[in-house]
Amino acid sequence: MITVVGNLKGGCGKSTITFNLAVWLARRGIDVVTFDLDPQATLSDAVEVRREEGVQPDVKVFRSESDPARIMANHQGEVLVDVGASNLWAMRQAIGQADRILSPVPPSQADVWSTARFLEIVKETASAKSRRPEICLFVNRADTHPMLRESDETEAALGSLPGITLLKTRICQRTAYRRSFSEGRAVFELAPGGKAAQEFQELVAMLYPDLITSGNSLQSRSSQ
Ligand SMILES: Nc1ncnc2c1ncn2[C@@H]1O[C@H](COP(=O)(O)OP(=O)(O)O)[C@@H](O)[C@H]1O
Ligand SMILES: [Mg+2]
């Protein structure tokens, strides 16, 4: 399955989510490749840190000069693509190949607006295909303070956008994600029982339910 992790705004967590998903899949022995189609190359940098730190398993990452469309079309396993607005051509290429679009959205009005614009690009690009990709949105960087309403409001606004699936799970703003990049490790490798790991597990359960039900779960792996 080709999952494109995208949105128009920088900082919404595209590279963070792509990196953590890639590690999660790779740790289950899934044949996963990633594409870093954003000139910022954050995903490539995080993978590089992981290699320097000698953390296994490795994550395969290709850049835009590697003819992504051809590699994606020929790869039989899982594909994750990190795309940003600074290369709209690559974003459209990736959307054209996608089975699923995954979009992290921070809790703010500006992010809701830019997500709506991103959906226009997705629909325009995917309309040439007979089968449209599923579009999954979820709130990332949610406030942990219970009194703050922005995440609820953002979810309500996202839920009213046409033709999307709103994932009923949130990833909160957690320090573990910043460490994730600086140490080249996924949040569930840094602190397997932590809140960030639990939230991430909820997200993957929605995205890859077959892998969870096959018994190959994070819990059984981390408790070994
Ligand atoms: N849930 C989160 N909690 C805390 N920090 C986060 C979270 N998601 C992303 N970040 C941080 O926000 C910054 C931007 O994230 P990044 O994944 O590079 O965004 P994008 O790829 O969309 O530009 C990074 O420093 C990252 O560690
Ligand atoms: Mg990025």
Describe this structure in words.
The chain has helices spanning 14-27, 42-52, 68-74, 88-97, 109-126, 150-159, 175-183, 187-190, 195-207, 209-213, 218-222, and strands at residues 2-6, 32-36, 60-63, 78-83, 100-105, 134-142, 165-172. The chain has 224 residues and is of the alpha/beta class. The protein has one domain (2-209): Rossmann fold (3-Layer(aba) Sandwich). It has a 7-stranded parallel β-sheet with strand order 3-2-4-1-5-6-7, sandwiched between helices. Helix 1 crosses helix 2 (42-52) and helix 2 packs across helix 7 (175-183). The longest helix has 18 residues, at 109-126. The two termini are 28 Å apart. Bound molecules: adenosine-5'-diphosphate and magnesium ion. The site of adenosine-5'-diphosphate (ADP) has 16 residues, from helix 1, strand 6 and helix 7.
Quote the distance from N terminus to C terminus.
Answer: 28 Å
Low-confidence stretches are 216-224
Computed Rg: 16 Å
Number of domains: 1
> What letter string, H or E per element, gives the SSE order?
EHEHEHEHEHEHEHHHHH
Mean pLDDT: 91
Tally of DSSP helical segments: 11
As a percent range, the share of strand residues is 15-25%
Number of strands: 7
Q: What is the CATH architecture assignment? A: 3-Layer(aba) Sandwich
Report the CATH superfamily: P-loop containing nucleotide triphosphate hydrolases
* Overall shape: globular
Strands of the biggest beta sheet: in what spatial order?
3-2-4-1-5-6-7
Q: What's the helix and strand layout?
A:
Layout: E1 2-6, H1 14-27, E2 32-36, H2 42-52, E3 60-63, H3 68-74, E4 78-83, H4 88-97, E5 100-105, H5 109-126, E6 134-142, H6 150-159, E7 165-172, H7 175-183, H8 187-190, H9 195-207, H10 209-213, H11 218-222
Parallel strand pairs: 1-4, 1-5, 2-3, 2-4, 5-6, 6-7
Helix pairs in contact: 1-2, 2-7, 4-5
The structure holds adenosine-5'-diphosphate and magnesium ion (MG).
Magnesium ion (MG) is lined by residues 14-15, 38, 40, 42, 82, 84.
